[in-house]
Amino acid sequence: MSHQGTFVVDAVVHAYNWLPDNYRVPLAKDFAEASHRLHSRMSDDRHRLSQDDYLVDWQPGPLAELMFAESDTDFAIYHAVPLDDYYHDGLISLAKGIEFRAENPHRTALYGNVNPLDGERALADIERYGTELKVDGIKFYPVRYHSGNSLQIAFDDRKLLFPMFERALEVGIRTVAVHKAIPFGRTAQAYYRLDDIDEAAAAFPDLNFEIVHAGMAFTEETAFLLARYPNVWANLEVTSTLIVNQPRRFAEVLGQLMYWGGPDRILFATGAHFVHPQPVIEAFHEFEIPADMVEGYGFPQLTPEVKEKILGLNALRLLGLDVEELRAAQAGDRWEQRKADRLEEPWTAQAGVRRAAA
Q: Of 3.40.30, 1.10.150, 3.20.20, 3.10.620, which CATH number belongs to 11-114+137-149+175-191+209-352?
């Protein structure tokens, strides 16, 4: 629990593997370097890593130290990623997420990765995720790369995606998350739009649809989805980091989402280790919607109660978890003891990452 008394949930964390031995295609190197450039833009001077320090292979132990010893994060949702068309382990492997959760059972939820183009194998994966691994959600990407071409995966594809959603519900999975807004590499921007969400959200009212990177692009479309579909959620992974170096841009995004959809389905997330989570958390605690936007656009005020919802309570409600039960389970654990007096220095956990051979 943070020094402000707010229970903080980071709704997307990753143990990336950016090392060259993980590259499956030459474009993987370009994507890795582009990610570091984005990290540099979204980080303040104290928390910005060099390319050599950023492009490493994070392990579950160091990730836990980053989240729970170096920041005010109380709970993290690990998203595995299915990018095995670019990276041998998918970039963020499910195996690391399983280990991360096993080591921190009262502080972690897990989303399994799915590639719908795998057909029956994808359906079997979803079955295993629900019945054996007991994941809390599943993660999709809107595009796959094959033989130099980008293949779209649309959520309104009734033949390909709807059977995946049906299987998820059958095995008790109630949330699907999809990467949107930020194009991954040299691919069509149109595939990262939100036009495919409407029919899926309407057809599956009992399934929660989580738009990841909400507001980095297509802000109005995201806001209108929130307004019309009570099962659509806005996940602020990467978007939240605008608060550090582009706070007015962040105010425009958050203000629109709250104006049209209210504050109850907005999830705080950083994507760590994409950035260090602590400066984003601290900035959000202090952040206010500028007065001219409140007066001129009618944006709601960012009250302490609303901040508590976005920083953690909304995510717990999505997961079906009780904040007081979690606080009791975490009381006196190793992470609470380690940061009892103060947070550990940023990027101390870097000592445990795997680096490229010299």
A: 3.20.20
Owner of token pair 């890593």: 49
Q: Which of 188, 191, 86, 93 is nearest to 145 (CA)?
A: 86
The 3-state DSSP composition of the chain as helix, strand, coil percent (nearest 5) reads 45, 15, 40
- The H-or-E segment that residue 211 falls in is strand 208-212
Residue 4 confidence class, pLDDT cut points 50, 70, 90: low
Report yes or no: 34 and 336 within 8 Å, Cβ to Cβ: no
Amino acid code (one letter) for 188? A
Computed over every residue of the chain, the mean pLDDT equals 96
Return d(Cα 106, Cα 104) in angstroms, integer: 6
Residue type (1 letter), 75: F
Residue type, position 69, single letter? A
Q: What is the pLDDT of residue 308?
A: 98
- The span from the first CA to the last CA of the chain, in angstroms, equals 39
Q: Is it the case that residue 82 has pLDDT exceeding 80?
A: yes
Q: Mean per-residue pLDDT for 70-91?
A: 97
Domain ranges of the chain: 11-114+137-149+175-191+209-352
Contact indicator for 243, 283 with CB cutoff of 8 Å? yes
* Helical segments of the chain, H only: 27-42, 51-54, 60-68, 94-103, 120-128, 162-170, 197-203, 219-228, 242-245, 247-261, 277-286, 291-297, 304-308, 314-319, 323-330, 334-338
| Distance in angstroms (rounded) separating the CA atoms of residues 17 and 142 | 21
Question: Is the pLDDT assigned to residue 1 strictly greater than 70?
Answer: no
* pLDDT for 149: 81
33 close to 40: Cβ distance less than 8 angstroms: no
Residue 118: band (very low, low, confident or very high) from pLDDT cuts 50, 70, 90: very high
* Residue bearing tokens 């964390």: 13
* DSSP assignments along 50-106, one per residue: PHHHHSSB--HHHHHHHHHTSSS--EEEEE----TTTBTT-SB-HHHHHHHHHH-TT
Quick: pLDDT tens for 206-239: 999 999 999 999 999 999 999 999 999 999 999 9
